[in-house]
């Protein structure tokens, strides 16, 4: 573990691959935002979004183009049962057949259809809420995990608090296109470094400059590969993603949120030889207060941004206001 003036290294080669606990701890301490927005805060880095940022972002809409960034929500999804996660189950409770048969009990020939969906809130395109991950029993802002999330749900930082917050300037960093121009796809296990994030910004140009309050979208090409080859191990298996060493970049840029086209946001397998599981999550959610999006569909957006020659847009991605939820399915849209 190499440090300069107590600042954790941003070079993956400096990681002690046999001591994930120490590498996590030093970054959790260095980039902790507890108390930054007061003891009662429930939004974390979403506080960086303000009215000025939103009005400025709205002026980016010049084409009238709307691009959905959601994957499908149906039974043909990536989930394989890990932690009891399933793909959405869509059930009809009233149908056209019922209406034709006249057995719905309605007068004067009116009929209708009704349905419902059963699914984990994080089975497709989604946000991780601030109550989703803990660090040594601590939740966001230093609260005890057991005081925050109980069998009643997230009693403090439920996603409903962000229902009117997550609209801001979006920036796409197409790392797949930047680092692998031949294929547009990064290899599984590829750890994206802070230097590579910066080099992508430099290559894409001024419209991809990352500013305070932005929502950064990172395209790796992993979803593209899943569409071509089948889901395989998309949900939980090897994938490109952010290196643990990117924690400092995520902190100093003061972004409001970040989302990727992968299941887990960070590189998998994680960068250790000793047992480790989602160490970057452990740093940025409970300590930094960063909202993370996963399984976003960034392919069409990548094509549109490349065609238009600009990588910024108005992004609207509010969660469903499900009281006490620690995550939410979403249909994020980019407006250009």
Automatic annotation (TrEMBL):
GO terms for molecular function: arylformamidase activity. InterPro entries: KFase/CYL (IPR007325), KFase_sf (IPR037175). One of its GO terms (biological process) is L-tryptophan catabolic process to kynurenine. Residues 11-20 have a biased composition (Basic and acidic residues). Residues 1-20 are annotated as: Disordered. It holds the Pfam family Cyclase. PANTHER family: CYCLASE, PTHR34861. This is Kynurenine formamidase. It comes from Microbacterium endophyticum.
